[in-house]
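Exercise 7. Given the encoded structure of a 302-residue chain, write a plausible sequence.
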């Protein structure tokens, strides 16, 4: 149960087998204006007596959902998958809502148009705001809701993930945007898993041109020196800092001509507004015209 004026992030979470004697078997949030960001969240086999077997939001919360799998939840009332009530709103992208009883997604006393769904698979279809949704059996391969080879949810999620703050990995820790159907174009899948994707690594496999990238100190407290070596000269070097959500927080080198050899730059631990970032894990991403190199770094307290 979540209440209060705040913003809450749920990344790579499984909500399974919970029971509520009233609303929101898997998750209940209400009675205040706040934002819930959910990414790669599996919600299954939850039960609520009154409504919202999987999720129930009521009177205030705004749900921003990316790559959810909401399946096999139940309620004795309405909204086995998602119930949205009163002044609440939900925005779903690249998700699967399937085999929940008494309504996959239900609005109640909202005045209509409180839920928008994009590039998602909803049993029975979705006829409210949104676009590019399907109503097809997801064809799961197992009881954990992985996609099978013939699933219609492969490479049919939102093709434009800019601004959606999608993390770079799926619920299994595999690469989040991957060419699962082999057509040469990497598009995100619907649901919590990315079909056929390799394990996500901060050391990406396509790095033949750069011999190394590292920083010191690591972990660091206020600033760190980033060093990298180029085996060739490039016209468009980019070096960015990302947070653990996959959001770019600062650009240190932007489309700059750099010659072969060793280079270094200092990051002072601030974002693009020159305000200090919080403690935690960050990623350095170095890009050339031919390859990408990623390095994990950690900021700690003094």
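Solution.
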């Amino acid at each position: 149960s979540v209440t209060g004026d705040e913003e809450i992030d749920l990344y790579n979470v499984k909500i399974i087998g919970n029971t509520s004697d009233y609303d929101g078997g898997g998750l209940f949030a209400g009675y205040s204006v706040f934002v819930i960001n959910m990414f790669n969240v599996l919600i299954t086999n939850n039960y609520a007596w009154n409504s919202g077997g999987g999720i129930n939001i009521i009177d205030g919360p705004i749900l921003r959902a990316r790559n959810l799998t909401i399946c096999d939840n139940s309620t004795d009332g309405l909204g086995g998958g998602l119930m949205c009530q009163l002044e609440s709103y939900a925005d779903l992208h690249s998700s699967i809502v399937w085999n929940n009883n008494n309504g996959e997604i239900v609005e109640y006393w909202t005045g209509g148009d409180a839920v928008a769904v994009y590039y998602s698979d909803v049993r029975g279809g979705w006829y409210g705001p949104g676009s590019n949704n399907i109503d097809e059996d997801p064809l799961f391969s197992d009881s954990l809701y992985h996609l099978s080879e013939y699933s219609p949810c492969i490479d049919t999620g939102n093709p434009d993930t800019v601004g959606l703050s999608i993390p770079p990995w799926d619920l299994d820790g595999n690469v989040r945007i991957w060419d699962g159907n082999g057509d040469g174009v990497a598009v995100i899948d619907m649901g919590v898993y990315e079909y056929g994707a390799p394990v996500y690594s901060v050391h990406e496999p396509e790095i033949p041109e750069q011999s190394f990238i590292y920083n010191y100190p690591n972990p660091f407290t206020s600033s760190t020196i980033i060093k990298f070596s180029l085996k060739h000269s490039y016209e468009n070097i980019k070096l960015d800092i990302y947070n653990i959500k996959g959001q770019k927080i600062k650009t240190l080198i932007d489309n700059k001509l750099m010659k072969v050899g060793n280079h270094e730059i200092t990051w002072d631990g601030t974002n693009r507004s020159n305000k200090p970032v919080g403690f935690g894990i960050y990623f350095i991403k170095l890009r050339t015209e031919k390859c990408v190199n990623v390095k994990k770094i950690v900021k700690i307290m003094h």
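Remark. The two ends are 34 Å apart (CA to CA). Students should compare their own answers with the one above.
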